Amino acid sequence: MKYDAGQVSKAMTSNRKAILVTYPDAFTKQEAVGLAEAAGFEVAQIVVQRYLMHGEFGVGSGKAEEIKQIATTTGCKEIIVDEGLTSSQIYNLDKLTGQHVIDREKLILDIFATRATTTEAKLQVQLAELGYEMPRTRQNVRLSVKGERQGLSGMGATAVDVRFRALKKRISFIKEKLREAGKRRDLYRAQRQRLNMPFVSLVGYTSSGKTTLFNRLANEDKQVADSLFTTLGTTTRTVTLPDSTKILLSDTVGFISRLPTYMIEAFKSTLDELNYADLVLLMVDASEPSPGVAIKYNSCLDTLKELKISPSKMITILNKSDIASQENITEAKNLVGDSPCTIISAKRGDGTHVLKSLIRQNLRLAPEARLPR
Fold first, then answer.
1. What gap in Å lies between CA 333 and CA 317, rounded to an integer?
2. Which one of 186, 270, 317, 320 has the minimum C-beta count within 10 Å?
3. Residue 74 in contact with residue 19, Cβ under 8 Å?
4. pLDDT digits (tens, 9 = 90+) for 196-226
């Protein structure tokens, strides 16, 4: 869904009306609205601020007063700030406005929590939530015990220390559970190796159309939606190429810009599967204006680089040719450059036969690119 500058979203009817504070550029506003809607909010009004994260409120004091007035006028009970804030900034803005304040990281975590369906995905979300909470714990505890005599909280331990120990214990427990899940993943990987079938992974920005393509190629019916982060886990199915070669195709969690390192780390056991792929198919929504395509494409490349995925085993797929203008497609092709690339419509099926041939060609040309199982 596209939003013009300053446009207010009416796409979702909800009792959770919120004020959205974000940056002024069109792409960032569009993505912020999408995140808010994915979390179940109706954006009543958008407030733009060129610099966030600064000052005692995360916004300027004048802007904070403006937000307070808007909250009073619109009756909004929640304020979403499209940036990571400190606990004290959230507390100060909450106290000034009298409304509940949610920053970008917490908003994404809330979406993750509602999307997680598998046990492993739920554990990864919990680990990410603890990663969010850990650096904020000291301020949170001090704010909650204001007025208490500095020092002791039961058996001679400070409240901060007690909370930190509880969080660390919980993190250790979840990491152990994820290690157990990793051992099961190793078994599945060994089974794949015995099948001697090439392994291909689908990656891309959230809502780029990965799951739609996965469903078409694998004859599956996984949930597809316009909202962000529909897929959090990994699903693998067999796909037959034109020459009857069979491959294993995997659909993975979508990427997003400004995703904190601790969130990537939390999903590392899922994302690490990309290191075992013979080919990585990078999905790009070519129907969007070129500035947004560039931001999303480069954000995906940065994440893949952080995961140490070699560009030599990547094919870029320009999706949504059924609604993209020729100008948009040309600009997207220029962005990709000389890297292997093809144009498709996952929704209609246009170009998927060519894509299958390209997959087969790349698997044939570069068998040495496969990583050891």
1. 10
2. 186
3. yes
4. 889 999 999 988 999 899 999 998 886 655 5
Evaluate whether 282 touches 315 at the Cβ level (below 8 Å): yes
Does the fold of domain 197-369 match that of domain 17-110?
yes
Task: Report residue 219 as tokens.
Answer: 């004859």
Fold of 17-110: Rossmann fold (3.40.50)
Residues in the chain: 373
Report residue 36 CA to chain centroid gap.
13
CATH number of 197-369, picked from 3.40.50.1110, 2.60.40.3390, 3.40.1190.20, 3.40.50.300: 3.40.50.300
Assess whether pLDDT exceeds 60 at residue 14. no
Q: Is 231 helix (H, G, I), strand (E, B) or coil?
A: coil
Q: What is the pLDDT of residues 61-119, one digit of tens each?
A: 999 999 999 999 999 999 999 999 998 899 999 999 999 999 999 999 998 888 888 88
- What sign results for the dihedral spanned by CA atoms 333, 217, 115, 126? negative
CA distance 26 to 7: 10
Amino acid (one-letter) located at 273: E
DSSP for 145-170 reads TTTSPSS-SSTT--HHHHHHHHHHHH
Domain residues of the chain, as ranges?
Answer: 17-110, 116-195, 197-369
